[in-house]
Amino acid sequence: MKRLATVMCALALTACTPTPTGPPPAVSLAPASTSDLVKAIDVKVKAALMPPETFDDVGGRFQSDKPKLTAEPTGTHGELSRVCEGVKADSGVSTSRNRVWAGPVIINQIVFGLVGADARHVLGAVRDKARSCRTWVDEAGKPEREVEADVELPELEGVEGSYAFCSSLTEISPPVWGCEAFLVRGDLVVGLRVVSGTEQMARQHLPEAARRAARSLAEVG
């Protein structure tokens, strides 16, 4: 369980990093309007989460939701991926929910709801960032992480765009690999991570996990 927590912290977008002390990026919406929009998009975010039993057939057991489904949605700082020192949605406001399964591999789904930002542009930003480096350091003093860009994904029905890459998590002992897929449809972006002790195993499980995430995303409408 401790190792699971360590792996998830290493992969997390915001959950295991300090809360920024400076003001959040400015948006052109009044606070009340922003709150209403976040609540409205959160309904779709919840609907795009894969059901807890999604990976029962392959031994993947539901572990947690963050925040809990009963918790009120909150705005984010637009952080989408930490690859190559990180990429953010550069406009609008967003909210997200994170769901984790553990088994032969660890599967982490993060669904982002975007307001005032183009999801396909966001997908391009993730792709460009992943292609921008072969190695990077997540935190000062940590070992370099390796990046393998342009990982192949299967045809994903009902998805408007997708992109995947893999990266090593060398600061974890023993090191592990995480393969990430990003899927977009309308104003939703799904980030999907499959984590294993080897890149080969993470790559092997990513396509089927992506298919299941795509089905849930397509059902949102």
In short:
The protein has 221 residues and is of the alpha+beta class. The protein has helices at 2-11, 31-48, 119-130, 199-220; strands spanning 61-66, 79-81, 87-88, 93-102, 106-115, 135-136, 145-148, 161-169, 176-185, 188-196.
What order do the strands of the largest sheet run in, or round the barrel if closed? 1-4-5-10-9-8-7-6
- DSSP E strands, number: 10
Low-confidence stretches: 13-32
**What average pLDDT do the residues reach?**
86
Counted by DSSP, the helix tally is: 4
Please give the share of residues in helix: 25-40%
Largest sheet entry: 8 strands, antiparallel
Give the SSE string.
Answer: HHEEEEEHEEEEEH
Shape: globular
Q: Which range does the strand content fall in?
A: 25-35%
Instruction: Report the radius of gyration as a whole number of Å.
Output: 16 Å
